[in-house]
Hints:
Shape of chain A: elongated
Strand order of the largest sheet of chain B: 1-4-2-3
Distance between the termini of chain A: 70 Å
Structural class of chain B: alpha+beta
Oligomer: heterodimer
Keywords (chain B): Signal
Distance between the termini of chain B: 78 Å
Pfam families (chain A): Haem_bd
Protein name (chain A): Cytochrome C
Organism (chain A): Chitinophaga silvatica
Structural class of chain A: mainly alpha
Shape of chain B: globular
Pfam families (chain B): DUF3347
Amino acid sequence: MKKFRIISLVFLIAFVLMQFIRPSRNQSSDQGSIKKTVSIPSAVSAILKNACYDCHSNNTRYPWYSNIQPIGIFMAKHIREGKQELNFDEFNTYSSKRQRNKLKRMKEQIEKDEMPLPSYTWMHSNAKLTIDQKQLINKWIDSTLHR
Amino acid sequence: MKKLIIAALIFTTIAYTACNSSNTHSHEGQTPDTTATISTPSTDHAVTEVKPQFTNVDPQVASALKLVIDQYLHIKNGLAGDNANDAANGGKSMAEALKKLDKNALTPEQQKLYVENEDDLKEHAEHIGKNEGNIEHQREHFAQMSEDIYSLVKAFGGGQPLYQDHCPMYDNNKGALWLSEVKEIKNPYFGGKMSNCGSLNEIIK
Lengths: 147, 205
C-alpha cells in the first residue's frame, strides 16, 4: 500500500509540474485566407469555421480544458499537423494546382468520413457533419472546380 | 486525499489516451468493382509523339529534374508491384531531389510553369513517403502526382523517352494517367490485380 502511495504521489507531482508547460497559441493572421481566391457561400463558410478551422486555420477557438496539460500539448501537436496539411488562412499562397487538389481531397476526406476526426467531434459534437452539410460542401467544391 | 490522487491519475490517463489514439487516419482500401480485365492492346498507330515545349533548358536543371523523374518511376514501379515500401522510399527521395533543383537557372516562363507544379508535387511526394502502410492512399496521391510530372515532362523533357499511359478504371472509372519508361503496360493503380490493363497514348521524347 505504501508503494502505491509513493507511485501516486510521483504521478501527482508530474501532473502538477506539467501544468507549467504552456504551448503557444494558434492565433495569428488570416492574410492568405481562402476567401481571397475562392468565393464561399456564407452557409458553407459557417460550416468550415465550425468544423474545420480549429485545426486548419491560423485561428483556433480554444476550449477551457486546453489549459490542462497534457491536453493542451496534444492539441497543439494536432493543430500543427493539421495546418501543415491544409490551412484555410494560407490557402491563397498555394499554387492554383495545389488549391484544386486540396479541394478534391477535402471532398474525398469528407465523403469517407475521415474528417473531422472522431477525437474532435467527440468533444465538439456540433462539428459532426450532417448529410445536408456534406452535400452543401460538396456542391460548393464541385462548382469551384468547374469554374 | 487518496481519492483526489486517484482521480487525478485517471484523468491524466484518459486525457492522454484520448488525444493520442485518434492520430492515425485509416483509409479504406478501394477495390475495383468489376472483375473484368479490359486489356487494350497498344497499337502503334494511335500513339502520338510529343516533343517537349522548352528547347533551352539549362543542363543543370535538366539533370536535377531527371533525378526527380527517376524517383517518380521508382514510385510507379513500387505501386505496380504492390510494394508500398518501395513507393514510400521513392516518395522520400523525390522530396529530397526536389530541394536540389535550382529555380534561378530557369527562364521566367519556365519558372512560372515549374512553380505551378512544385508545391503540389512536393506534397504528394511527402504523403507517399509517409504512407508505407496504406498503398491505396499512396495511389490517390500518385494519380495527382502523375498530372504534375506529366506537365513538367511535356515542358522540360524527361531526360529519356517516356510513355504516357492511361488507366480508364481508376477512381470509379474517372480514369488516371501515368508515365512509364517502358512500352509495356504495368498498371500502378491496380498492381497485380490487373497488371496489363491500360492504354498507351503518347510518347514524349
